[in-house]
Amino acid sequence: METGVVVLIGLFFAVSVYLMLSKQLVRMLLGIAILGNSVNMLIFANGRLTREVPPLIPKHLYTPEFATANPLPQALVLTAIVISFSFFAFLLVLAFRAYQELGTDEVNKMRVAEPDDNQTPPQGY
Amino acid sequence: MAGSSVSVDLTQAMVTAPVAAGDWLIVAPSLITMLGGSLCLMLRKNTELQPKLGIAFLALLVLASLALLVRVLDYGVITMVMGSWLPPFGIALTVDALGATLTLIGSIVALCAGIYGMATVDGTGRRYGFYPFLLLLMTGVCGAFLTGDVFNLYVWFEVLLISSYGMLILGNDRIQLDGAVKYGVLNLVGTNLFLIATGLLYGIFGTLNMADIAMKVSALENPASGTLSTVAALYFLAFAMKAAAFPVNFWLPASYHTPNVVVSAVFAGLLTKVGVYALIRIFVLILPDSLEYMADLISLVAIATLLTGAFGALAQSEMRRLLGYLVIAGIGAMLAGVVVGSIEAISGAIFYAVHSIIVMTALYMAAGIMSYMGGSYDLRKLGGLYQKNAAFAGVFLVLGFAVSGLPPFSGFWPKIMLVQAAFNDGWGWLGAAILVSGFLTTLAMGRVWIYAFWRGGPEGTPDGTSIAIPAGSVVQLGGAAPWIPLGILTALVIYFGLQPEWMIELSTQGAVGVGAGVDDPVGYLRSVFGDQG
């Protein structure tokens, strides 16, 4: 099962890198969203994958009888999902505002902060 | 009720002894700023009260981090685990001399920015949350300096990143939106790389506690194995992006000149240095072997960063973009210290980080005052500032000397330590690059001073006398507010230049604490795991 998940993670990374290499800001943002999800799956797979075992502790014991799924990566992934989701939401709004103000979503044409005709410093006085 | 009759030995899993009162100081910096940030957020419409509250909380933060530093110097490394679970199960906050020093300097800079913000951030900026963002940014910065857990470090990075986004777009100008898109996308990719590396590290060792990982790495037979070197390379790329090292430095000059100048000042002081701190923490403490096999790569990156920064500064006419390139040059010097790796080099890098935090913030603040006095950030349009305010011209000269590494100011000593360490350990090229970069920085800063201060007026006006400037006609910039922080920071620059022993001692302790030049960072590990560590 791990092999399959690993291949899937690789595919996710490939898709996200391909999208992030685009000139269009919207596609870059989609790439970032997929990147976040591929990182989440990577962490999940790094916690080792097991088949479903209910994490129930019988009354006479202190620990579960069988190995249950590793809860730590799930906690990490949960944190990372919340963070990447909120960042994605922020970036979407930012990109929309930038599109409104700059009139383009092509990153090569976003040259307000770094104008093409950047003046060189004075050479003498 | 099966379990209640059986006695459980809690000492196996939890810290049962009460936490010493002084150790609570570890959580104080993050808690103070979090409380202050939420309070300012609730009062966000009260633009008169907000600055006072913000500054009060930042002053409290300075006091708390000073007390924390004193505590660390008295008692050595302090560890506190959340929920009292024994490490490595609970999230550990571990603070050594390095973390405590940077927290203190960072909070001083934030306090200065809070005061400076009274003058430059108007009502709109305050209503849109300058002070809450500043305080929450400090939550992230302090948390990153004080944590002993890799994933926790990632979370603090995100806390400071989201606050920095808020500060960057404060004002909502076209140019800010453009800068923020580039800053936002690249920094988010950087933190995602950090997270990938952390996930892989967890997959290898099954733990996230830095001290625990450090022990497990040193117990490995083949520390240069494939997976671990992948992790090291990913960490290096992630932190290089955060620190704006060559060739992933382009987001910094694209964005740092767009926001309110006080925001640029905070960013230039703190954000890149958090990246350098994480680099030192991860590479020197946890993955010291990877420093050896990646040394050639990192040294090339350091040299390229030093030169990119210095040449970039020479080519800029806009003051804030010029300063942005100087931030990058400083990062190169710190990277050089990390590559060399001896105690002297690491302490030089730490001292340089302290110096760079103070001097870059002060320079951005000075640039803000220059633009208020001269009406522009462009070197072509500035001029005659010496006649307007000679004392300010002196202050700028001091800062220019300091950032170029000339004596007798704070940049001189860390640079000497770095160059000496580089030559001692056979890294001649690295030492030469630091010197060349310092020379080019001197040229850039000298030119700024000549054009903005020394010549009579802006470009096109005949030299000197053609513009009649009545003596003492300084443009008022919100009264004393911008001058106090600039004065404090300049005083620190001069103090560290004349009395460097204290800071050298402190940064040497920091370097020993992360285990530079020795095999085992005993103090750090023992603090987390007790004597069996």
Shape summary of chain A: elongated
Give the helix tally of chain A: 3
Q: Into which percent range does the helicity of residues of chain B fall?
A: over 70%
Approximately what portion of the residues of chain B adopt beta-strand conformation?
under 5%
Provide structural commentary.
- The complex is a heterodimer of chains A (125) and B (533).
- Chain A has three helices and no strands.
- Chain A has a single domain, classed as Helix Hairpins (Orthogonal Bundle), CATH 1.10.287.
- Chain A has helices at residues 2-20, 25-46, 71-102.
- By secondary structure, chain B is mostly helical.
- Chain B has one domain (13-463, 480-524).
- Chain B has helices spanning 28-42, 49-75, 97-120, 123-127, 130-146, 150-168, 174-205, 210-218, 226-243, 251-255, 261-286, 288-293, 295-315, 319-340, 343-374, 385-388, 390-404, 412-424, 428-454, 483-498, 501-513, 522-529; strands at residues 78-81, 92-95.
- Chain B has a two-stranded antiparallel sheet.
- Chains A and B meet through helix 2 and helix 3 of A and helix 6, helix 7 and helix 10 of B.
What does the secondary structure layout of this molecule look like, with pairings?
The complex is a heterodimer of chains A (125) and B (533).
Chain A: H1 2-20, H2 25-46, H3 71-102
Helix pairs in contact in A: 1-2, 2-3
Chain B: H1 28-42, H2 49-75, E1 78-81, E2 92-95, H3 97-120, H4 123-127, H5 130-146, H6 150-168, H7 174-205, H8 210-218, H9 226-243, H10 251-255, H11 261-286, H12 288-293, H13 295-315, H14 319-340, H15 343-374, H16 385-388, H17 390-404, H18 412-424, H19 428-454, H20 483-498, H21 501-513, H22 522-529
Antiparallel strand pairs in B: 1-2
Helix pairs in contact in B: 1-2, 1-5, 2-3, 2-5, 3-5, 3-11, 3-15, 3-20, 3-21, 5-6, 6-7, 6-11, 7-9, 8-22, 9-11, 11-14, 11-15, 13-14, 13-19, 14-15, 14-18, 14-19, 15-17, 15-18, 15-20, 15-21, 17-19, 17-20, 18-19
